[in-house]
Amino acid sequence: MLVVFGVMMGAFNGTQNTVMSAFMLKNIAAVNRDNYMPAYVLILQMCVVIGFLISMLVKSTQFTTAFFGLGGLTVVAGVLGFWVNWQR
């Protein structure tokens, strides 16, 4: 079950990275990409590391609850980000 969840999380993470990169390439002017893209990659990787560190606090008996709870929180944050960008 952990392998299935790991593969699902990896696939969803790859999809999110692709969508965010496409969004940034569309919305950042070509002359500013050299300045903004490294910061984007740094922030993205810091978020991944922080997520790994936080995941060490989750006990194996709480994994399913934590997985669905944090997944729901991620969906809410994604929808909120989509809504904010849609309003511009």
- C-alpha Rg, in Å? 15 Å
Order of helices and strands, N to C? HHH
Describe the oligomeric state of these chains in a short phrase. single chain
How many structural units, i.e. domains? 2
Keywords: Membrane, Transmembrane, Transmembrane helix
Transmembrane segments: 37-58, 65-86
Explain the overall architecture.
The protein has 88 residues and is mostly helical. It folds into two domains: 1-57; 60-87. It is 83% helix and 0% strand. It contains three helices and no strands. It has helices at residues 2-27, 33-55, 63-86. The longest helix has 26 residues, at 2-27. It is elongated. The model has no long low-confidence stretch (mean pLDDT 82). The chain crosses the membrane at residues 37-58, 65-86. Keywords: Membrane, Transmembrane, Transmembrane helix.
Blueprint of the fold:
Elements: H1 2-27, H2 33-55, H3 63-86
Keywords: Membrane, Transmembrane, Transmembrane helix
Transmembrane segments: 37-58, 65-86
Task: Provide a compact summary of the structure.
The protein has 88 residues and is an all-alpha fold. The chain has two domains: 1-57; 60-87.
Structural key phrases:
single chain; 88 residues; mainly alpha; 2 domains
